[in-house]
């Protein structure tokens, strides 16, 4: 495996600025977040918890003195370094599959060296015996629909997803009984003469209840059960930490939010969790920001079950002020998007009449316990809460800074432009992420039917489909959700639409001036726009890293989105891009015609954006699938490009995160060096049970 690039998420100065009460709140919320680690590991692969234990066992056997371990076991320092690189990458991704791309990575260490390292303790030897084969085996090579080359820990038991009819019936059964899927997994097994499915729901409470109505009238060959108690031990510890945080909350609303989260984790009820999100959205600009729960469904091959994550952060006042300036202007900026053009004062049927300025914060991450650490997030993911209550945008400033030292895919930029690309990349990337979050994920109005049959539009005078000119023919029926209708397409189409919004608006002078980019600044608006389109080309090609030619599946929602955007631009922007490749020299270069960026590139992005937006708002999954699957198809030419991209893959980014601990009634913070050793030490000192 490639040696990772380790970066420290520095947060000490921000933490020191908190009051004693705020520090105690942050500490207990941090402990709650880290206690979710084993849930994530369990969701990644069957062997992930064992590998975690093995790494910790080796650390404790030598108390972090790896040179001593090398001497004691006769393993070379080079193999120790290779193992540490693997361990740090594993810990930062919370599992043995990359958070970005879902592809498996294995240690560049011989079996003999692993056996020698494990010989230092009986526990390490037993652990290695259990996890060695799956740890070093290249298969399953990625996460996804269970098969010969892929696996998913959301679906347990052989052939769990084999019957699409059964899965559809179970989904309908869950919907009818108000069992939301986000905090569940599914298990299949044979019991006597019946094929049984357990809907495993995350909760402290344990019980098992038969669900009526599965398998048709009078059928007894198939049964379904709701089995509560998945992740019981971890959720118990998390609830204890949340309970300890309550006395230090900054407001009664925050206390209520924590109690609702505890209720959800104890009982498995996502209604309580959804209520906590409504409170969270209205908790504007807290001194300590938190996110905890089953949040992102990226890794579920069906796109509905969510991975656990825990985040604690401290606002950056100066950057937050700039972001809030943008937020106050967001309602007017919405008028510049393709589906609200030329509609006068009204934004039209596909956009909310009033875009309420969301809470938009730049925070320093104290804890980001997740398989992937994003530069920014927009939550909650429940569309009804977003439309009725609102949402929050968060930019992680200490995570974002790591991008300023990276120019990923630089080898695909012409040599004459590489210095300029590096100089301007972060400036364009930052604004792209900001616009992606606030106006990408924040815009749009779904056409929906309520449970009583009412519609949120006039059926007598329905909205017009901009592509056919006729009335819309589809909308979200009662009980339907975005993820339920679009399934495996939901997350990647949503991310693609958000990325398109950010790129489409990147040249707007009003937006750029908020961030200090004017005709008088060192980096000028034209530089930002040009770099954005060059990034679209580079990232579109880089996205091929996360396409698996064996299974013909994409492993990451954003990567598929970037490739689809680039393919659309290649077809539809009148020669804006050129791609040259030389297989013999293993070179691949993308160029942008600067004179066509705004005249050809922007209208092309607008056309793609409008299609995805209308498909999304009208629940038109059939046309969306046809359009998006064609754009994200990887043909023979793209496979050749992929070979070059993979051979020059950028090193994975690994993060060193801080710990907090109590000394009497005082909370102290400890940061760790940005090395593989530092990352392993930080996790060992978290004492995760």
TrEMBL record:
InterPro entries per UniProt: Dipeptidyl-peptase3, Peptidase_M49
Catalytic reaction annotation: Release of an N-terminal dipeptide from a peptide comprising four or more residues, with broad specificity. Also acts on dipeptidyl 2-naphthylamides
Pfam families linked: Peptidase_M49
Broad class of where this protein is predominantly found: cytoplasm
Keyword field: Aminopeptidase, Cytoplasm, Hydrolase, Metal-binding, Metalloprotease, Protease, Zinc
Required co-factors: Zn(2+)
GO CC field: cytoplasm
Subcellular location: Cytoplasm
First-tier enzyme category under EC: hydrolase
Gene Ontology biological process: proteolysis
Protein name (database record): Dipeptidyl peptidase 3
Organism taxonomic ancestry: Eukaryota, Fungi, Dikarya, Ascomycota, Pezizomycotina
């Amino acid at each position: 495996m490639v040696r990772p690039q380790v970066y420290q998420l520095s947060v000490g100065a921000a933490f020191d600025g908190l009051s004693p009460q705020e520090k105690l709140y942050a500490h207990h919320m941090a402990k709650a977040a880290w206690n979710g680690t084993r849930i994530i590991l369990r969701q990644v692969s069957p062997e992930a918890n064992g590998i975690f234990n093995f790494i910790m066992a080796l650390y404790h056997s030598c108390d972090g003195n790896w040179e001593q371990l090398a001497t004691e076991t006769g393993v070379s320092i080079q193999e120790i370094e290779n193992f540490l690189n693997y361990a740090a990458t594993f810990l930062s991704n919370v599992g043995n599959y990359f958070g970005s791309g879902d592809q498996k990575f294995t240690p560049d260490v011989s079996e003999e060296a692993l056996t020698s390292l494990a010989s230092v303790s009986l526990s390490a030897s037993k652990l290695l015996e259990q996890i060695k084969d799956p740890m070093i085996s290249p298969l399953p090579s990625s996460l996804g629909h269970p098969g010969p080359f892929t696996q998913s820990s959301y679906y347990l038991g052989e052939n769990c997803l084999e019957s699409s009819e059964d899965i559809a019936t179970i989904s309908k059964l869950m919907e009818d009984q108000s069992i939301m899927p986000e905090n569940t997994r599914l298990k299949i097994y044979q019991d006597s003469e019946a094929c049984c499915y357990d809907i495993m729901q995350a909760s402290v409470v344990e019980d098992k209840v038969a669900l009526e109505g599965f398998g048709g009238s009078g059928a007894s060959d198939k049964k379904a059960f709701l089995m509560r108690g998945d992740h019981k031990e971890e959720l118990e510890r998390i609830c204890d930490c949340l309970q300890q945080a309550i006395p230090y909350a900054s407001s009664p609303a925050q206390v209520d939010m924590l109690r609702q989260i505890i209720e959800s984790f104890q009982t498995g009820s996502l209604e309580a969790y959804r209520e906590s999100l409504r409170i969270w959205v209205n908790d504007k600009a807290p001194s300590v920001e938190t996110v905890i729960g089953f949040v992102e469904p990226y890794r579920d091959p069906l796109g509905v079950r969510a991975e656990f994550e825990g985040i604690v952060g401290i606002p950056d006042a100066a950057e937050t002020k700039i972001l809030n300036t943008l937020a106050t202007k967001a309602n007017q900026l919405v008028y510049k998007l393709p589906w609200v053009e030329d509609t006068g004062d009204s934004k039209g049927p596909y956009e909310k009449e009033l875009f309420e300025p969301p809470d938009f914060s730049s925070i320093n991450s104290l804890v980001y316990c997740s398989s992937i650490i994003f530069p920014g997030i927009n939550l909650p993911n429940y569309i009804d809460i977003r439309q009725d209550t609102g949402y929050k945008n968060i930019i992680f400033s200490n995570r974002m800074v790591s991008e300023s030292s990276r120019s990923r895919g630089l080898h695909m930029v012409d040599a004459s432009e590489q210095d300029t690309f590096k100089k301007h990349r972060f400036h364009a990337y930052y604004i792209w992420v900001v616009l992606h979050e606030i106006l990408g994920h924040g815009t749009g109005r779904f056409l929906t039917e309520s449970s009583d049959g009412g519609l949120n539009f006039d059926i007598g005078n329905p909205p017009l489909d901009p592509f056919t000119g006729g009335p819309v023919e589809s909308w979200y029926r009662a009980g339907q959700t975005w993820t339920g209708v679009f399934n495996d397409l939901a997350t990647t189409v949503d991310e693609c639409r958000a990325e398109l919004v950010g790129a489409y608006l990147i040249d707007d002078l009003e937006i750029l001036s908020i961030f200090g980019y004017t005709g008088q600044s060192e980096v000028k608006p034209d530089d930002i726009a040009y770099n954005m389109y060059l990034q679209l080309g580079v990232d579109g090609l880089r996205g091929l890293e996360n396409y698996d030619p064996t299974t013909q599946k994409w492993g990451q929602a954003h990567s598929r989105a970037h490739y689809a955007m680039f393919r659309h631009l290649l077809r539809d922007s009148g020669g804006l891009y050129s791609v040259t490749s030389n297989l013999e020299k293993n070179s691949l270069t993308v160029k942008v015609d600067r004179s066509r960026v705004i005249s050809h590139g922007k209208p092309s992005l607008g056309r793609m954006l409008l299609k995805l937006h209308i498909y999304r708002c009208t629940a038109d999954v059939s046309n969306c699938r046809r359009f998006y699957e064609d754009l994200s198809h990887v043909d023979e030419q793209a496979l050749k490009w992929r070979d070059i991209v993979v051979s020059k893959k950028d090193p994975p980014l690994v993060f060193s995160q801080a710990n907090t601990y109590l000394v009497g009634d005082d909370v102290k913070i400890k940061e760790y060096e940005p090395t593989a050793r530092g990352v392993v030490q930080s996790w060992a000192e978290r004492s995760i049970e």
